[in-house]
Design brief:
Blueprint (H helix, E strand, L loop, with lengths): L7 E5 L4 H12 L3 E5 L5 H8 L3 E3 L15 E4 L8 H8 L4 E3 H9 L3 E6 L4 H14 L3 E10 L4 E5 L4 E6 L13 E4 L7 H4 L2 H12 L8 E4 L10 E4 L6 E9 L2 E8 L2 E8 L4 H15 L5 H9 L9 E5 L3 E6 L4 H14 L4 E6 L4 H6 L1 H8 L4 E4 L15 H7 L4 E4 L4 H7 L5 E6 L8 H10 L1
Parallel strand pairs: 1-2, 1-4, 2-3, 4-5, 6-9, 6-10, 7-9, 10-11, 11-12, 12-13, 17-21, 18-19, 18-21, 19-20
Antiparallel strand pairs: 7-8, 13-14, 14-15, 16-17
């Protein structure tokens, strides 16, 4: 891909979080962008306001001046029945997957790649924000909408890039990383990998892409799987260690010990031990790229998070409502631990939408155990995304395994309200990676009406 020769790019699946960031990149280069997505969203609306031409029907006649397209980019979520994909394949257009294009861009910068089955969006957004506040960011691609910038793409004049290294479809093997942060390697995407051993081997293969092992950064609980790496966490063996943690006024106060030297007075407004670990991983990535501890301190203290990652949507003296993207059992456990740490006296009422039939099948018992940490559970039908139903896998089956007295399968927000009318002091959670975020506004309106 030679961007200097490209005048027009067409995206199939432009509304995806990764695809839209790429679209912004090309728009920033004054390249004409068109795109298709199944649904209109806030993401596609913002792209249109930035100059993109977007349509929502799979119809090639809607593409203006189709023969002027120099590059077509598509996501693995697009199936072979897509008419546009078929047309461009049959007519020999320059057709690339999103991961191929991101890999090409990674060659243009000193790329900090953030990988892991959990934590990569928050960690990469922290790195991007630190670089931004230090005025050293290049092109930063984040897998979520940052609350600081209301965007998933940042562009500056620096030579450092931040990219989420997505393990799905082995996309991360296309990158050319200068630094790697590895946050976790819990089993996931077993529909792709088959076994956790295959997933681990893919992460090992990814980490071998790194030329300089002094820039290979690993969270402490998984450092045993690797030979040469820097480690972050709470343990004495860590190169960057989190120490002296306190909670004050709704935020963490803590210090870092880096190579035996203590650096004081760091703060983070994001609850959860896992977010302290994400902050340490981001800090160590910045340190090895010559960002000072003072610049890191400023960045972390002003970091506001990512949309749908412990995002507080409503809060008063009696009721708090938090929306979160957690869609794996371990993520749900981490989320609920953080909630209980910061809101120890609240009754926890959760609304969960399982994401993918295959993931629900693979972790059925683990989902049941994690959801049993709630006080009350309202379960939605499984969000299929790219999948077809699997016989014997349903939310009813999952609900039966959850060890709670107060649990119910629901389909509409209104089915929840009659139960909430009986509650006066509680914390409400919407949890999941599907379209449960479409419930958020209705829930906020209901809570405001009280």
């Amino acid at each position: 891909m030679h961007s200097a020769e490209i005048k027009k790019v067409h995206f199939i699946g432009v509304g995806g979080i990764g695809m839209s960031a790429l679209a912004y990149y090309f728009i920033s280069k004054k390249i004409k962008v068109s795109g298709y997505d199944k649904i209109q969203s806030s993401i596609t609306s913002k792209l249109v306001s930035s100059g993109a031409e977007i349509f929502y029907e799979d119809d090639i006649t809607l593409i203006e001046d189709i023969n002027s397209i120099d590059l077509v980019i598509y996501t693995p979520a697009i199936n072979n029945e897509n008419k546009q994909l078929t047309f461009f394949q049959n007519h020999n257009f320059n057709l690339l997957k999103r991961s191929d294009v991101l890999g090409d861009i990674s060659n243009l910068y000193k790329t900090i790649a953030v990988a892991g089955t959990h934590g990569k969006t928050t960690t990469s957004s922290m790195v991007a924000h630190i670089l931004k506040t230090a005025h050293k960011e290049g092109a930063c691609f984040v897998g979520g909408i940052t609350s600081n910038y209301e965007s998933n793409f940042l562009l500056g004049n620096g030579d450092l890039s931040v990219m989420e290294a997505d393990e799905y479809d082995k996309s991360f093997l296309k990158l050319n990383p200068d630094s790697i942060v590895l946050t976790s390697i819990d089993p996931d995407h077993l529909d792709i990998y088959g076994t956790k051993e295959n997933l681990h081997n893919s992460f090992l293969e990814f980490c071998k892409l790194l030329k300089n092992q002094n820039k290979f950064i690993v969270e402490e609980s998984i450092s045993k799987f690797f030979d040469e790496n820097l480690v972050y966490g709470f343990g004495n063996q860590c190169n960057l260690r989190i120490i002296n943690v306190k909670i004050s006024n709704g935020k963490y106060l803590f210090d870092f010990s880096y190579e035996g030297v203590i650096h004081k007075d760091f703060s983070l407004k994001m609850p959860g031990i896992y977010n302290l670990l994400n902050a340490a991983g981001a800090a160590l990535a910045c340190i090895v790229n010559e960002i000072s501890l003072d610049e890191i301190r400023i960045g972390l203290s002003s970091y506001k998070g990512v949309k749908r990652r412990f995002e507080i949507k409503f809060d008063n003296s009696k009721i708090t409502y938090i929306d979160d993207y957690a869609h794996h059992p371990n993520e749900i456990i981490s989320l609920l631990s953080a909630v209980k740490e910061f809101y120890p006296d609240k009754k926890l009422i959760g609304i969960f939408q399982p994401h993918l039939f295959s993931r629900t099948q693979d972790f059925l018992n683990e989902f049941a155990q994690s959801l049993s940490l709630l006080d009350d559970l309202f379960l939605l039908p499984i969000y299929p995304a790219r999948e077809k139903p699997i016989e014997g896998v349903s939310s009813d089956v999952l609900l039966e395994k959850v060890n709670l007295d107060n649990k119910k399968l629901i389909h509409l927000p209104s089915e929840l309200f009659s139960h909430l009318e009986l509650e006066s002091d509680f914390l409400l959670l919407t949890i999941g990676a599907g379209d449960i975020d479409q419930w958020v506004n209705d829930l906020i309106k209901y809570l405001q009406s009280r």
